[in-house]
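Q: Can I see a sequence and its folded structure?
A: Here is a first one.
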Amino acid sequence: MPVLNQNLFSESESDIQEPYPFEVVSADGIVGSCTTFSTRAKISSEIFKQSQTDDEMLRIVFVASQVEREKAALGDNYDPKLIEKLSPMQWCILERIARSRKLGEVTIGKMSLKVTKENAMKLHYHRKVMLKLGLITKQSYTTKSVGQNHNGLLFHIPRFYNLRQNKVQLIIELIVKVLKERPHCMAPADEIIQLIKNDFVNYKRTFQYPEFSRIIERDKTVLYSERKSYHILSKA
């Protein structure tokens, strides 16, 4: 029996400063999130060359053009007409998800889409638009904070999609694999339980998981030659 690693992510207990404070900007064809946009000034190459002190250099910010940022986020799917379908808030959320690359952006925790300060209903609508357009992917996500597990959602842009599975999902995947190797995709329930309980103390949770009922049929009864009844699990 292979050891199943639980993909459970812990929330840091220390206060971590948000590296990308969220503030929607939409002005003169420029859309994005930036808290210092109104205080920035465009400088010429000559002024840049004259900047010699460390303080002056630290105050200089390089920003890609709007089109280049759109191409970086959408990659091969770049289409100006597609961008037009997004509101400034939706674009800022998409750009934040793209920036996270394979780590992805979550809906729960200190550093998550909560930084948008949008309520859950509005965030759901924004994500729904981007999911429909195929701009982002969605999967379930579990994080541990102060000893408690919290379920949320994890988002990536398609080219950085990275499958994350919690332990229950990994066990369901293992059960399906075992059932596929059996005649008629069936096996006695006690055999399946014995297979997983040594590696998963709370294995009963697996049978209560909605995805389990959707994929695997249980509590069938068949009669063997001994005329005894057995509960089995079969791949639905």
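Q: Show me another, different protein.
A: A second, unrelated one:
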Amino acid sequence: MKKKYTVKILTDDNDVDNFFELKEWDKFVLSSPQGCIFCMSWWLRLVCPKGFKIIIVKNNQGIVGGMPLQNEKDDLYPYGVPYYLTPYTDTSGTINSSSGFVGKAIKFQDATYSYICANINANNEAKWQSYAAVYTSINNAFLKTFRLGFMYTRFKAPLIVDDPQDKRSAQKRIYTDFDTTAELMNLADQKDDRHTGKDVLSNLRMDEGGLVFVNRLPVIPIPQLNGAPLTPIYCIDFAKFIPYVQDGYWMEEGEPLTDRGQHTTFTVFLDGAHNNLCLNRRTCGFLLHKVS
């Protein structure tokens, strides 16, 4: 009988399926002639402070191969957006304590700061400063802060999502951690009895699937932001971000690998990497955050 192979990525999070498959991966490592302690999930947790992922290959009998990888820095953030949407007002790492187009400096992996963002000095170019605002808790005052961010950055949902006049249409999204999303859900429930849904900027509601919407835009909870400093809420307009690929970094074909259980089967990996280019830092979205 012909075996069917599938490829899956395991991540180090609290997902139940991941938990059991990581246990299965550890058993596979222990039974494999090529297995070693450095591939065990408990070891990866110790030596990968940014987290890790394991690319596994399975058939109907279980795991037949895999490769553990350490997460890169950008994997901790949604789409590398914090490079453009920042709370830092200077190169000393001062955190914004007000609201407005105050996001000037960017923070690098080595904990240094710079005004140069995408080769433009944000300290000299006021139009290259991102919008940031402080909130303290999820309440009515938070909604006002949210509305101001919508207005200053023109961040409103289009009436026609797929605009026929725009060949490169994209979606707007809101990203935050699990706790903040749950607090937004609670606030929506509190307003449900008296909320009409007709106001443009304060439209806070829940859909049938339990997802909370602000101004018709879904709030997406992502585990990478759980425990992130300043409890950030990223509001992103993907129409202002263009992925681009440097020459030689796309669809790079690796050497054929012989399957360990079927010598007549070969696997070839195609690798690629891209960066995001921001067209307009003032209108690509905004960042809401706490002061600590």
